[in-house]
Amino acid sequence: MSAYDDLMAFTRETQALAQIAGRLDWDQETMMPRGAAPQRGEECAAIASVLHARRVDPKVSEWLAKLDATELDETARAQLRHIRRSHDRNSKVPAALAARIARVTSEAQGIWAEARSSNDVAAFLPVLEEIIGLRREEALSSDGDLYDALLADYEPGTTGAELEAMFGALRPELSSLRAAVRDAEAPPKLSGDFDEAAQMKLTRKLAKTFGYDMSHGRVDKAVHPFSSGSGLDVRITTRTNPQDPFNCFYSTIHEVGHAAYEQNIHRDYLLTPLGEGVSMGVHESQSRIYENQIGRSRAFTGWLFGEMRDAFGDFGIADEDTFYACVNRVSDGFIRTEADELQYNLHVLLRFDLERALISGDLGVADLEAAWNDRFEADFGFTVDTPANGVLQDVHWSVGLFGYFPTYSLGNVYAGCLHEAMRAALPDLDSQLARGDTTGATTWLRDNLQIHGGLYEPRDVIARARGAEPSEAPLLAYLKEKFTGIYGL
User: Shortest CA distance to 129 belongs to which of 404, 348, 353, 359?
Assistant: First the structure.
């Protein structure tokens, strides 16, 4: 066998072990007994140690040194790019530190969940401070800005300064549009009780409608909806609320966007670095375009209106136009994952600024809750009522995902770019969506982006699909057109 064949065989085993680690995380969120948390922490630390040892194995360096990239095809060169990046990054992180991060973040997840349920910020802060210290120690092993080092784990090739500039262009425009909408007459709000079993039945139909392959996946319930896995085993979760079926339906469509990306990557890339979504920003572009530009469009909500009437009978909304406005209603709220499309990015920008300050040391953990509450009131115009609706609402910091939050808004920017290109390519898209047929949209996304997996760099895969470099302009144009129309501005 050649050095390349040996390297890829070794890498496939590592990728398989990483999938097992991911399955442990899925189980922890869905089915694991609460009392198993301390043992699960040890299990996660053990497999993290094994994975870290493989990722820094000297044999990887030896194989890489023997290979001449100019003699390889495009796919092989892309595999090497990912392998080398991972090897270099992990080689700078001591094995003991990697294991400690895995152990502490696994245990912290349970501490956060308890603190959130009891609104006890003080119970969470000590372990949060420990996590921040560990992630800063990890980032110090790389050259340059600490936050950029963490961001590279989720969005390679992007810096905090670049995102700050992009978000700086978004924030005033979104704030201005939000202010205009708040002064306008609001559409009706959905009310009543919606059977949770019926919600789950319809949500599974929605998953299939958006192309989710249930023979290689499953839908379960969790506190925080998420997607897990890649290739032939990609699972999603959702949640139900008897007063808010949209939470269930659009959480499901969102996670199907993530899952479809993973399921549609070229099968030749299975269990290789190219067999996963290339970045979290690109990943989020898929979940957001499924959820919003497709799922909340006037055409698709017309079809969903009929499905909801079949499932729940008359639920107080008179017609399809009113239902469309109801689905896209701009409402005050605390929770990022439940935020309307217009205000969602303001939630993300808040977290981006706060976590950069935490990592740099400009913001102390003891001052985090006050900083959150002050920023929230400034951005949204009302005060946080409980920590569960404020600083404790997200799981991300408890599991050490610093650098992850900005990819949500970057994903929205990418989704805006893709939607513009998809509309140009599919002039009859609305007539398809009005029949509940998403095939045209999902096939376009599969062929132009999803199938490539990690073959191209994040910005490159968006640029190839769009035919131009990524920009926040299409997202802003889309939001202005949509909400000025709904609110008659």
Answer: 359
3-state secondary structure of 222: coil
pLDDT in tens, 313-365: 999 999 999 999 999 999 999 999 889 999 999 999 999 999 999 999 999 99
- What's the start-to-end Cα distance of the chain, in Å? 66
Q: What would the mean pLDDT of 126-154 be, rounded to a whole number? A: 94
Spell out the domain ranges in the chain. Answer: 3-143, 160-487
CA 399/CA 36 separation, integer angstroms: 17
- Token digits for 415? 């989704």
Mean pLDDT in residue range 2-23:
96
User: For the residues 113-124, what does the mean pLDDT come to?
Assistant: 96
Check the CA dihedral 293-295-300-301 and report its sign.
Answer: negative
Active site residues: 255
Q: Is the pLDDT assigned to residue 369 strictly greater than 70?
A: yes
* Cα–Cα distance for residue pair 80/357, rounded to 1 Å: 34
Q: What are phi and psi of 227, to 5 degrees?
A: -115, 145
How many Å apart are CA 315 and CA 113, to the nearest integer? 34
Q: What's the Rg (C-alpha) of the chain? A: 22
As a whole number of angstroms, the distance between CA 244 and CA 240 comes to 8
Between the alpha carbon of residue 376 and those of residues 132, 262, 299, 328, 364, the distances in Å are 22, 34, 34, 22, 18
Other CB atoms within a 10 A radius of the CB of residue 477 amount to 12
- How many other CB atoms sit within 10 Å of the CB of residue 471? 17
With residue 229 as reference, give the H or E element that holds it: strand 227-230
Neighbours of 461 (CB within 10 A): 24
22 CB neighbour count, 10 Å cutoff: 15
Please state, in angstroms and rounded to a whole number, the distance separating the CA atoms of residues 45 and 40.
Answer: 8
The proportion of the chain whose per-residue pLDDT surpasses 70, expressed as a percent, equals 100
Q: Which of 333, 289, 255 is nearest to 429 (CA)?
A: 289
Q: Is 96 exposed, middle or buried (0-12, 13-18, 19+ CB in 10 A)?
A: exposed
| Mean pLDDT computed over 218-237 | 94
The DSSP-derived string for 64-79 is HHH--GGGS-HHHHHH
Q: Does domain 160-487 have CATH number 3.40.47.10?
A: no
Which pLDDT band, with edges at 50, 70 and 90, does 89 fall under? confident
The partner residues of 233 in beta bridges, in order of sequence, read 230
Strand partners, 238: 221
Task: Kindly indicate the confidence band of residue 486, based on its pLDDT and cuts at 50, 70 and 90.
Answer: very high
- Location of structure tokens 């469509």: 253
Cβ atoms within 10 Å, residue 98: 21
Tokens of 407: 């990819």
What pLDDT is attached to residue 1?
A: 65
